[in-house]
Specification:
Blueprint: H1 3-16, E1 19-29, E2 33-42, E3 46-48, E4 51-55, H2 66-85, E5 92-95, H3 102-115, H4 117-122, E6 134-137, E7 151-157, H5 162-172, E8 177-183, H6 187-195, E9 204-208, H7 212-219, H8 229-244, E10 246-251, H9 275-288, E11 294-297, H10 304-311, H11 338-347, H12 353-360, H13 371-378, H14 392-405, H15 413-419, H16 422-427, H17 447-456
Parallel strand pairs: 1-5, 5-6, 7-8, 7-10, 8-9, 10-11
Antiparallel strand pairs: 1-2, 2-3, 2-4, 4-9
C-alpha cells in the first residue's frame, strides 16, 4: 500500500475506532502449568483473547505473593496490547484491570512510541508523542511490588541464534546455575540449548499465542508492522525468573543494538534491545515490580565482531543455530535476507569459507542479487535494513578483515564489488582489529560476571 494511503487509513481508523480497552486477564494454575488469558477490545467491534502459558516443571517454586503474580501478569498484558492496538491506533487506551500512576503511563507511552518507530516510519505515519495515545485507568486497583525467594541463578532467554549460544557458553564456564528460557520453542532454540549442554527437560518453556482476529484484520488491510518483541521478552522473563527463583536475567543484546536503523533519528528496529530500553526497564522493575531480580544483557559490553569471534570457536553450534527469521519455521537459512548476509559477513573473518558454505548452503558473498542488502549493511545506502544487524562500522571492519585473509585472485563477487566501493575507500585504513580488543563501558553487567567476558576476548 502506498505510504500516502497509509496516512489516510491511519486517520480514518482513528476516527472510527476511538478506544482500545484492556478489559481483564484471567490466571489459572495447575501442577504443570501457569496460564494467563488476556481480554482486549477495539471499540466494541473486535475482541482479542491471546494466551501466555508456562510449563512449570521442573523449576516451579510455590512461595508466591498472589498479588505479585497478578502484577507481573498485568504488566505483561500492558506490553502485549501494543500488537493489537496498532491495527487501528485508537487515540484512547482504557485500562479496566489495573491502575497506573502518571509516571507509569509516561513510561508505557515512551515504550509504545519508540518501540513502534519502525511501524510508524514504514507506514509513513508521523504521530506526535503528546497525543498519539492517551492512557486512562478506570479503577484504582493498584498492584503492589513484592519480592520472591531468589537464589543466584541466571535465566537466559534463548532464541536459537549465535548471541544466546554465546551467552550460554560463557555462563557454563561460571559457578552459576543457568536456566535456558524459550518462548515459543522452535527447532533451533532447543537445538542450541542442547548443544550447549542442557537436556531438553532442563529448559523452561513458555508459549505465547496471537489471537487469530488480529491476523484476520491484517488480511483485511488494517495497519500492520513491527512491534517491540524484546519488551515482551523482558516482562515475560521477569515472571519466568520469579517462577524459577532466579536472581539474574541475562539477555544477549550487544552494544550494536543501540545504533539507529535510520541515521540521525530515534528510529531503531532494535529499540527494545537497546541500552536505553534496558535502563528504563531496570528502573521500572525496581520501582514497581520487584527488587529480587537483576535484569541486564550479558553481551552488552561486546560488539558484533567480538561475538562473531567467540561464536567461531563454538563449532558444535554450527549445525544448529539459525538467525534467519524468514526460515525460522522450516529451521533453514533462506540465504536471501539481511540477517543471513550479515551473519555470514560477521563470521567470515573467523570461519573458513568452506565451513560457512556448509552452514548456509552456498557462498552468500557470491550472490549478486544480495547487492542492495549489501549496500545497506555497509552504509553505501543511507538506511540500514530493518533487522537485528550490527553497526555499519562493524560490518565494514568484518569485510576489511575478510579481505586481508582472502586471495585477491578469487574474491567472491560482493567482496570484489566492495573493494571498488566508496565504503572501502572510507574504511580501508581503519584498524579493524580495534573492534576485537576493548569492552564497551556502557552496560549494566554485574561485576561478578565481568571476568568471564574479559577472558573470552
Amino acid at each position: 500500500m502506498p505510504r500516502q494511503q497509509n496516512e489516510k487509513l491511519y486517520q480514518t481508523l482513528r476516527k472510527k475506532f476511538t478506544t482500545f480497552t484492556f478489559e481483564k486477564f484471567d490466571i489459572s494454575w495447575s501442577a504443570d502449568q501457569l496460564k494467563i488469558k488476556y481480554f482486549y477490545s477495539l471499540a466494541s467491534e473486535y475482541h482479542f483473547e491471546p494466551v501466555l502459558s508456562f510449563s512449570l516443571k521442573p523449576y516451579y517454586i510455590s512461595d508466591f505473593n498472589e498479588s505479585f503474580i497478578e502484577n507481573l501478569a498485568f504488566q505483561i498484558g500492558m506490553v502485549e496490547l501494543i500488537s493489537y492496538w496498532k491495527a487501528a491506533c485508537p487515540p484512547k487506551v482504557i485500562i479496566k484491570c489495573g491502575y497506573l500512576e502518571e509516571d507509569q503511563k509516561n513510561w508505557w507511552k515512551k515504550l509504545y512510541f519508540n518501540g513502534l518507530g519502525e511501524f510508524f516510519y514504514l507506514n509513513n505515519l508521523q504521530p506526535d508523542f503528546a497525543d498519539f495515545m492517551e492512557i486512562s485507568c478506570v479503577n484504582q486497583n493498584k498492584y503492589q511490588s513484592a519480592n520472591y525467594p531468589a537464589s543466584p541463578k541466571m535465566l537466559v532467554p534463548v532464541g536459537g541464534g549465535k548471541d544466546s549460544a554465546v551467552t550460554l557458553d560463557l555462563m557454563k564456564k561460571t559457578k552459576y546455575e543457568v536456566i535456558p528460557f524459550i518462548i515459543n520453542p522452535r527447532q533451533a532454540s532447543i537445538a542450541t540449548a542442547k548443544a550447549a549442554g542442557f537436556d531438553e527437560n532442563e529448559l523452561f518453556i513458555a508459549n505465547r499465542t496471537i489471537d487469530k482476529t488480529l491476523l484476520k484484520l491484517n488480511d483485511e488491510g488494517f495497519l500492520n508492522g513491527h512491534t517491540p518483541f524484546s519488551a515482551v521478552v523482558a516482562f515475560t522473563s521477569l515472571l519466568a525468573a520469579a517462577i524459577t527463583g532466579c536472581r539474574f536475567i541475562g539477555l544477549s543484546n550487544e552494544s550494536s543494538a543501540n545504533e539507529p536503523t535510520i541515521p540521525h533519528t530515534g528510529i531503531n528496529h532494535q529499540y527494545s534491545k537497546s541500552l536505553d530500553f534496558e535502563r528504563d526497564f531496570r528502573q521500572y522493575a525496581l520501582k514497581y515490580l520487584t527488587t529480587s531480580t537483576e535484569y541486564f544483557s550479558l553481551l552488552r559490553p561486546y560488539n558484533e565482531l567480538q561475538i562473531g569471534k567467540i561464536f567461531s570457536t563454538l563449532s558444535h553450534q554450527f549445525p544448529h543455530f539459525k538467525s534467519c527469521n524468514a526460515g525460522s519455521k522450516t529451521d533453514t537459512w533462506c540465504g536471501k535476507c539481511p540477517k543471513c548476509l550479515f551473519t555470514w559477513i560477521i563470521l567470515a573473518p573467523f570461519v573458513e569459507q568452506t565451513v560457512l558454505e556448509n552452514i548456509f548452503g552456498k557462498n552468500l558473498l557470491n550472490d549478486i542479487s544480495l547487492l542492495p542488502i549489501f549496500e545497506q549493511l555497509t552504509g553505501i545506502q543511507e538506511e540500514k535494513p530493518f533487522e537485528c544487524v550490527g553497526t555499519i562500522d562493524e560490518v565494514n571492519a568484518a569485510l576489511i578483515l575478510t579481505l586481508k585473509k582472502s586471495s585477491a585472485e578469487s574474491l567472491p563477487k560482493l567482496l570484489e564489488y566492495y573493494q571498488n566501493s566508496d565504503a572501502y575507500k572510507k574504511y580501508k585504513l581503519m584498524e579493524a582489529s580495534k573492534f576485537l580488543d576493548a569492552l564497551n563501558p556502557n552496560h549494566f553487567v554485574p561485576a561478578r560476571f565481568m571476568k568471564v567476558l574479559e577472558e573470552a576476548i
